[in-house]
Write a sequence for this structure.
């Protein structure tokens, strides 16, 4: 069984990958979860990466929290951040009431006419 440290490390790697991705707009079809996922996606003009896991992957909430912390800190380590989160029913699992957790990772780019001091 994976520990909180294991899930943190997994999340950290996923966060680094998401934070390093190109995050360019891609037309997405969210299928039956269009309402839940498209709202956060549109908020960031589609310029984000989505990291997702089934809540069934975790034996308790602490492990899910460790994974989420790893994703957030991993993305921050490469200059990105979490721009939003949501959950949707995990229809593919076949388990009634199962959920998927989605973390939206974004990068903030200053306007090109901005000078940093």
């Amino acid at each position: 069984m994976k520990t909180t440290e294991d899930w943190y490390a997994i999340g950290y790697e996923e966060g680094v990958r998401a934070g390093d991705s190109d995050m360019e707009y891609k037309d997405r079809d969210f299928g039956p979860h269009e309402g839940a996922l498209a709202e956060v996606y549109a908020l960031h003009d589609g310029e984000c990466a989505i990291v997702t896991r089934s809540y069934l992957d975790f034996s308790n909430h602490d492990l899910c929290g460790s994974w989420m912390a790893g994703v957030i800190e991993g993305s921050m380590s490469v200059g990105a951040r979490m721009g939003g989160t949501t959950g949707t029913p995990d229809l593919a699992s076949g388990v009634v009431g199962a959920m998927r957790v989605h973390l939206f990772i974004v990068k903030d780019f200053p306007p090109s006419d901005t000078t940093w001091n």
